[in-house]
Design goal:
Helix content: 25-40%
Strand content: 35-45%
Number of helices: 5
Radius of gyration: 18 Å
Number of strands: 8
Largest sheet: 8 strands, antiparallel
CATH topology: Pnp Oxidase, Chain A
């Protein structure tokens, strides 16, 4: 497997494991972020989200479909930033496929017409995968006394 393929798989693995992200959109001159539960579909090269027609993100995406997904596991010191293009649709089959317990907190059924599905097709990603908080602090302390730069884990920029 090539390095690019390994890094791409690492992006998918990390985002799948973290599960939640901040969806960042552009609203005029403002940048907005909100937490979302991601459904990772690596074979489709896509991230899916259930959303609500009353939210402003759908309008923002219609005007500017370029988005960022920021995944963070601060305890494990693992982070992924995904840049891609978003599209909102009323794909009822996909909505039923994504229907799960967390969605039931927001809607009564997958048939609720106020639920569209948001698809993000990634173009680019970057990840930071550290060995964890304790190990990172030990490495930073050792580097501080030795004047060496600490090895804080892996970081890669990946075309998706």
């Amino acid at each position: 497997m090539t390095k690019d393929k390994d890094d791409s798989e690492r992006v998918w693995d990390l985002t799948e494991k973290i599960g939640f992200c901040m969806l960042v959109t552009k609203a005029g001159a403002d940048i907005r972020a909100r937490p979302m539960s991601a459904y990772v579909e690596r074979l489709e090269n896509a991230f899916y989200f259930l959303t609500d027609v009353e939210s402003h993100k759908d309008d923002e995406i219609a005007r500017r479909p370029e988005v960022c997904l920021a995944f963070a596991d601060s305890r494990g010191q693992k982070y992924v930033s995904v840049t891609g293009t978003a599209d909102v649709s009323n794909d009822r089959d996909r909505i039923r496929d994504l229907w799960s317990t967390p969605a039931k907190a927001w809607w009564d059924s997958a048939e609720d017409p106020s639920i569209p599905v948001l698809k993000v097709t990634p173009a680019y990603a970057e990840f930071w995968d550290s060995p964890g908080t304790l190990v990172s602090y030990i490495k930073m302390a050792a580097a501080a006394v030795s004047s060496a730069r600490p090895d804080m884990g892996d970081n890669a920029k990946v075309g998706m």
